[in-house]
Write a structure and sequence with these properties.
Protein name: Receptor ligand binding region domain-containing protein
Keywords: Membrane, Transmembrane, Transmembrane helix
Order of helices and strands: HHEHEHEHEEH
CATH superfamily of one domain: Response regulator
Strand content: 5-15%
InterPro entries: ANP_Clearance_Receptor, Peripla_BP_I
GO molecular function: peptide hormone binding; signaling receptor activity
Distance between the termini: 38 Å
Helix content: 25-40%
Shape: globular
CATH topology of one domain: Rossmann fold
Length: about 210
């Protein structure tokens, strides 16, 4: 008589959970923080180099139009897990969630500005400069999602605009990205990592596992 393997003790609720649910909730939380922080909190002079603030940096212009511009820098190649074709639908769901809960004022439009960095350092750097130029004036950068491309963007972010520009990513696995970011002298001062793991934490986990 052949025995069938025991059923997995996973809750039916978890089994029905969409595979991108974790990513969706992550981006929802990130956008909630961005929306509340940028739109509702008072301005703070947090720049690493003094610059004259440009009119386009404001979310609400003098003409009354309000727009939150989010620069998305990721590869278009779907062989990368966090690529533009995979992430765009997640961001759309996140925006729907934000609108439904009225987390940011209804008059504030959200504009997604996407760039394909091909996981290249130089290309990602140019994309970040294009996304924060006078024609675009992005308020926050999502990505890059490849560590090689993320490093130069996260380095220059503190010198973009008078107050720098936040760089939010689920990547940043190498050791340097976990270094302190409190002061302008810190290399990745404007970087916010939303990922739950890094190579450093994985290394410590393996060491503890071997010791046990």
């Amino acid at each position: 008589m052949v025995r069938r393997p025991a059923a997995s003790p996973v809750s039916p609720v978890l089994q029905r959970r969409p595979k991108d649910a974790g990513t969706w909730f992550l981006f929802v939380n990130v956008l909630i923080v961005v929306g509340l922080g940028i739109v509702m909190l008072p301005p703070v002079d947090a720049g690493c180099r003094p610059l004259v603030r440009k009119e386009c940096e404001k979310i609400c212009r003098t003409n009354g139009n309000c727009e939150l511009r989010i620069v998305v820098i990721m590869p278009a190649n779907t062989s990368v897990e966090a690529s533009l074709p995979r992430v765009r639908p997640v961001l759309e769901k996140a925006e729907e969630h934000i609108r439904r809960r009225a987390i940011i004022p209804a008059k504030v439009a959200i504009r997604w500005i996407s760039y394909d960095d091909r996981c290249e350092q130089a290309r990602a750097t140019v994309m970040a400069m294009d996304g924060t130029g006078s024609e675009t004036c992005g308020h926050v950068i999502l990505g890059p999602t490849c560590d090689f491309a993320l490093a130069p963007v996260a380095r220059i972010a503190r010198y973009i605009y008078n107050d720098g520009i936040p760089v939010l990513t689920g990547a940043g696995y190498t050791f340097d990205f976990e270094e302190p970011k409190t002061f302008c002298e810190n290399e990745f001062h404007m970087l916010i990592r939303t990922g739950l793991v890094s190579f450093k934490r994985m290394a410590y986990f393996m060491i503890d596992l071997i010791r046990q």
